[in-house]
Amino acid sequence: MGIAKNSFPLRFLLMAGVLVTAFVYSGAAGGARELAGDVAYVKTIGFTVADLDRETDFFVKVLQFDKVAEFRLVGSEYDRMQGVFNVNMRIVHLQLGDQIVELTSYVAPPTGRPIPVPSFSNDLWFEHMAIVVRDMDAAYKRLQDANIRQISAQPITIPQSNRGAAGIKAMKFHDPESHALELIYFPPGKGNPSWQQPSNRLMLGIDHTAMTVGSTEQSVAFYKELLGFNAGAATFNKGDTQEVLDNLFNDTCVVTPMLLPRAPPHVEFLDYRSPPGGRPMPVDTKSNDLWHWQTTLVSKDLHGLMDRLQKAGAQFITPEAVIIPQEAQAKLGFKKSVMIRDPNGHALRLVEE
Asked: Most buried residue, 158, 213, 321, 336, by most Cβ within 10 Å?
């Protein structure tokens, strides 16, 4: 059982005029659109962990993150916020550059199911975040010294034939609990200009979270028309380097950046045109399952955004906006929250600060 790859309501796709066949999108982050509730930026990228102390250790000691907060949340408000009954959560915030990663461990109920074995990049539950590095060789040596488990056999360099991404170096690997992560190096002229600023740090920050989608067209429609993202120029990635990067034979993938007024980080879509066989997100996925990622998106008008999503038939995990208790607002960094799923089942936590 799973969420169908094309489950987003057809009436919305027709209304938006997005039943198209083109693979490549172009455009900048800017635009004339200003609708109530449009998302302004990505606040945090988060995922569920079983052993919070071990995970925190890994991110701090190996990946050079700074631990900036740790706290617990208990109460019915957080049950509704996460869609899990009777929660007691330990949460750690980790900072790298200007970006925050949120690790959540469920003390109660006990952490849910582990990430399926095997898991592949073309499975629709797949999501990862890309950590920008100043020197790929030095960063890769840190991973080797820590005996991490690699998805990519070695770092790859995207060839000159891929004009949009030529010269970018990348490799994918696992944290101690099999969450997928990526190291990425941007040569001059590529990536966000902030990554080209002088720095004595090896690990610079988080460029994006990338999630596998069943349909680029459908996903772009949802994020653009309902949330206010803009689609950047897509690339069609294929060949030996892409196969090594993803550990997928006969790998072809359309990669589409989804941009907001304030970045980094941004969201990225991975649409695998081959190989076939990518599995859907389980329909009974809960926030305490270890394959659960949640991207926190900030809106200035949460109720306006919710109204637009409800009219379009979006799937809500949280039935109505949760008002965060005063004592927890400073810890979480927002005062209202609701969680939804995108057309592929990826969780999005929409908040108002």
From this structure: 213
In a domain, 2, yes or no: no
> Model confidence over 44-61: pLDDT tens digits?
999 999 999 999 999 999
Q: What is the CA radius of gyration of the chain?
A: 19
C-alpha torsion angle, residues 144, 153, 193, 29 (rounded to 10) = -130
Question: Where would I find the beta strands (DSSP E) of the chain?
Answer: 39-49, 66-74, 88-96, 99-108, 127-133, 156-157, 169-174, 180-185, 203-212, 230-231, 235-238, 252-259, 266-274, 293-299, 315-316, 322-323, 336-341, 347-352
Task: Report the relative pairing of strands 347-352 and 293-299 from DSSP bridges.
Answer: parallel
| Residue 5 counted as domain residue | no
CATH number, domain of 40, equals: 3.10.180.10
Which tens digit of pLDDT belongs to each residue from 330-349? 999 999 999 999 999 999 99
Longest Cα–Cα distance of the chain, Å, equals 54
The torsion angles phi and psi of 246, rounded to 5 degrees, stand at: -95, -10
Report the C-alpha gap between 241 and 224 in whole angstroms: 30
Residue 198 corresponds to which tokens in the numbers above? Answer: 């002088």
Task: Report CA torsion sign: 143, 145, 150, 156.
Answer: positive
4 falls within a domain: no
**Phi, psi values for residue 244, rounded to 5°:** -65, -45
